[in-house]
Amino acid sequence: MPRFKGDAYDSAETQADLVMQLCSNVKFANQIAGKTLLGRLGGVFEPKAHHQGFIFPGTRGVLGFIDGTANPASEDRPGVVLIGDADPFFRDGSYMAFRKIREDVAAWDKLSLRAQEDAVGRRKADSAEYPDAPTTSHKKKSDVKLGGRDMKIYRRSYPFWSPFESGILFICYQADLGQYEAIKKSMVGGAKGGHDRLEDFYHAVEGGYYFMPPRSKKVGEFLGDFLFR
Fold this sequence. Notes:
This protein is 23% helix and 17% strand. By secondary structure, the chain is α+β, with helices and mostly antiparallel strands.
């Protein structure tokens, strides 16, 4: 992952060789699955980092706004997420971008509702587009076209919180990492009147890129089997 403007980390230090995402409705299920997997991988891999997120009702983040409103519809998602003819060896897999972003909630909460909606570009109550949002709003800065093509990603992020830090475990999937990078470069760039207003409250402290292999298609194959042939 390249180092974007404002990043407070070296991706070469935070990048791992393998990432595992465990999701469930109850925390103990994650504990059992994680313990079992790490036990099976003992001697081959050792833990580098651990992150624990959760889901707010209505998929809101710690800043109070709904996350992932612009995600592609289910019928459009394969074209956004799955690798195709451009990289046939990895066909039907996906590329994941991960960033741990600390959010300055104390400073954010000092803003008026109007200032927050100006920054996001959406109504806080229902995430409807904010008609008069500035060009530096997140909605407008993340709306990117390259060569007449909309740059889309599929977000699957999770808020995190502790007495010492809070923010978002930003996770997105795409067929080409250029999709994410085009959006991120727009957010930190000075076009359209300046950088994305949300960047004033974001502090990325970890990150990396990962390949997510496709589901196995044959009995007896394991996930990512083709990578070891």
